[in-house]
DNA sequence: AATCTCTGCAACCGCGGGTCA
DNA sequence: ATGACCCGCGGTTGCAGAGAT
């Protein structure tokens, strides 16, 4: 281990090293506390955690441990994490080793502030993919999924919530009027015609980042296409869309229900203040919306990007 | 200056899917 | 077909530092 100090120049972790050096003394003090305080959660059913062994160290990694891990991976390559604690003598569980490598020690990891471009990409990918951070991270190879996830949770979510609130305040009423009008029209169509043909009006537009269902976005090919479309669109105008809202194509009624979902991840979807005080939406419209969306869960966390764009988020 | 609260982020936990005997 | 094992993922925790009171 000590025989390979040069390894620190081979991996791009100078910041990691410095930061750890700064905290080293504090760490030593805290690790025992962490070990004592951490709740044991193994009384639940299922496979016991891999780290539920006596003598396994937890908490922040020391530079020495990093060197040992990097040395081993330099020699044997990543993978076979199970063997690492045994072969290196590290008192860490395999999972901890893998996490340390993939999130911190792995070469090519970019640290520091996210650029505007990265931020935009994350926002759009999150809208497309939801909280599938690993998938999002494949589009930002220099960032780890953990980094992206943290950045989303600490910066972007708040930022988007604020923008969303502003949008809701200013546009909710106008949109509600439009929605009611459209729902009425749809109802009238449904009552007067057996087969309303409104496709030409309500067809979702891929290039304007309008999504009819999360199932579509879940397809990797489609995601790439949407993303490419977005990249191109960003340079030109975003005005190609006829609507500023997410379009939910409703085959049953022929109506397009426009809405902006809250970004909240809790699932509680706390009602907006304006939402609760306004007249209720027509039942048929709500029904359509509810029935057409496979589940609330699927939509949760997705937001209306065109609105965000127009509100000047970027 | 002391204390409290908030924020950022590294690390941990448990679950689910894939593999293999 | 089944169970054990391993790995990857997303959610969550908890510490350190910054800012507010």
UniProtKB/TrEMBL annotation:
Q: Which domain of life is it from?
A: Eukaryota
Q: Which Gene3D superfamilies match?
A: Homeodomain-like (1.10.10.60)
Organism, by scientific name, is Dioscorea zingiberensis
Q: Where in the cell is it found?
A: Nucleus
Question: Which residue ranges does the record annotate as region Disordered?
Answer: 238-280
The protein here is known as: Uncharacterized protein
| A Pfam family it matches | Myb_DNA-binding
Q: What is its main location?
A: nucleus
One GO molecular-function entry: DNA binding
């Amino acid at each position: 281990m000590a025989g390979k100090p040069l390894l620190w120049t081979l991996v791009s972790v100078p910041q990691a090293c410095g930061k750890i050096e700064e905290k080293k003394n504090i760490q030593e003090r805290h690790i025992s506390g962490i070990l004592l305080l951490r709740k044991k959660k193994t009384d639940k059913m299922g496979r016991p955690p891999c780290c539920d062994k006596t003598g396994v160290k937890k908490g922040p990694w020391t530079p020495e441990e990093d060197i040992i891990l990097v040395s081993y991976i330099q020699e044997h390559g990543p993978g076979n994490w199970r063997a690492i604690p045994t072969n290196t003598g590290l008192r860490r569980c395999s999972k901890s080793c893998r996490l340390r490598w993939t999130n911190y020690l792995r070469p090519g990891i970019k640290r520091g502030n996210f650029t505007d471009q990265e931020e935009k990409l994350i926002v759009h990918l999150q809208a497309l993919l939801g909280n599938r951070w690993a998938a999002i991270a494949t589009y930002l190879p220099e960032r780890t999924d953990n980094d992206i996830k943290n950045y989303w949770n600490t910066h972007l979510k708040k930022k988007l919530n604020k923008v969303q609130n502003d949008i809701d305040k200013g546009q909710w009423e106008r949109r509600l009027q439009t929605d009611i009008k459209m729902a009425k029209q749809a109802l009238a169509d449904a009552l007067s015609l057996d087969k309303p043909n409104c496709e030409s009006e309500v067809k979702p537009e891929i290039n304007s980042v309008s999504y009819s269902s999360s199932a579509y976005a879940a397809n990797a090919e489609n995601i790439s296409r949407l993303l490419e479309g977005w990249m191109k669109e960003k340079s030109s105008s975003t005005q190609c869309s006829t609507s500023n809202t997410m379009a939910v194509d409703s085959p049953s009624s022929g109506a397009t229900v426009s809405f902006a979902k809250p970004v909240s991840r809790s699932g509680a979807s706390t009602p907006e203040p304006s939402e609760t005080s306004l007249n209720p939406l027509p039942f048929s419209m709500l029904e359509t919306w509810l029935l057409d969306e496979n589940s609330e869960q699927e939509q949760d966390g997705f937001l209306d990007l065109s609105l965000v764009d127009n509100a000047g988020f970027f």
